Amino acid sequence: MRPHRINALVIRHLYLFKRSVPRLMDIFYWPVMELLLWGFLSIYLEKQDLGNLNAVTVFLGAVIFWDILNQSQKAVSISFLEDVWERNFLNLFVTPIRLGEFIVSTVVLGIIRIVIITIVMALLAALFYSFNFLSLGFYLIPFMASLLLFGSTLGFLSMAVILRFGTSAQILAWGFIVLIQPFTAVFYPVSALPEAIRPISYLLPSTYVFEGMRTVLSDAPLPWSTLGMSFLLNAVFLTIIIWVFYKMFAKVKERGLLLKMD
Question: What's the angle, vertex CA 125, arms to CA 119 and CA 129, rounded to 5?
Answer without folding.
Answer: 165
